[in-house]
Amino acid sequence: MGKKKDLKRAIVIDREAQMIEVYTLNNKEAYRGIPRGKVLKKTKIYAGDYVWGEVVDKNTFAIEEVEERKNLLIRPRVANVDRIIVVQTLKVPEFNNYLLDNLLVVYEYFGIEPVIVFNKVDILDEEERKELDYWVNIYQNAGYDVLKVSAKLSEGIDNLVNYLEGFICILAGPSGVGKSSILSKLTGTQLKTQEVSERTERGRHTTTGVRLIPFGKGSFVGDTPGFSKVEATMFMKWREIRKYFREFLAYQCKYPDCTHTNEPECAVKEAVKERKISCERYKSYLKMIKVYLEDIKELCK
Fold it and tell me: Domain segments of the chain: what residues?
């Protein structure tokens, strides 16, 4: 990149108002980041940005340049995200596949690879484990990586650490699923967590900003504010949604702009009928685009 030999590469791990914290990639030390001249005037800096600069003293890193970022999440503002860890639970709180499908569509839209992590597997009985396997198969068949963990018992955490090696990751998912507990296990950093309310089965928000924490071999992970609802149509037009159901893309319909609803010779509907695409995923798609099909019972019988 033609950098001066004395400049060091770092990643922004925290951005709060005017405060910037960077983490140097060579000596793995944290410093307060101070943008210089042209950077201060021309560039907005976000957590996840890779920057070049020099160590001024034991506390300060002068930022000379910000690398071009490959992506920027809007919610939350984090740059260069490689993986979204979409945390779910089968119960406490109850699994909502429509919410998960919306999240997957949104992250597909942003071009960030989601991995689905089911937490709290330790509280499931035999029948509930069978139900979990049912959902795991649906999402694996749709083309997603799915991991099962228990943050409480540290079960499956080592597999998750290895899976995320070298990536900038963000934890996402509804409140109460244990994102902060998973982050604590990944990084060894004890974060503030709160129990899920028995009345609402929702955790109270314990995270207000985004801070990237180093872990494993060159990995960084950040927690995000919990949320219980996101609609794909907040980010894209309804006609675009079909492009972000990755299992739909394996099929070629008669019409290139097929909405997979009432058009003749729709290969996606045929795949649903033949159980090559799950009815649950297809129903989520119809709900997102606000279409009701008279023949849905016939397709999914």
Answer: 8-67, 73-222, 237-299
What would the DSSP string read from start to end of 79-95?
ES--EEEEEEESTTTTP
pLDDT at 193 over 60: no
| pLDDT tens digits along 120-164 | 999 999 999 999 999 999 999 999 999 999 999 999 999 999 999
CATH 3.40.50.300 describes domain 73-222 = yes
Tell me if the domain spanning 237-299 has CATH number 3.50.70.10: no
Report the pLDDT value the prediction gives residue 148, as an integer from 0 to 100.
97
Q: Does domain 8-67 have CATH number 2.40.50.140?
A: yes
pLDDT digits (tens, 9 = 90+) for 237-246: 999 999 999 9
Burial class (CB in 10 A: 0-12, 13-18, 19+), 51: buried
Strands of the chain (E only): list them.
Answer: 8-16, 19-24, 30-35, 50-55, 60-66, 72-73, 78-79, 83-89, 113-119, 145-148, 168-172, 212-215, 219-222
Give Cβ neighbours of residue 156 (< 8 Å, ≥ 6 apart).
121, 147, 148, 149, 150
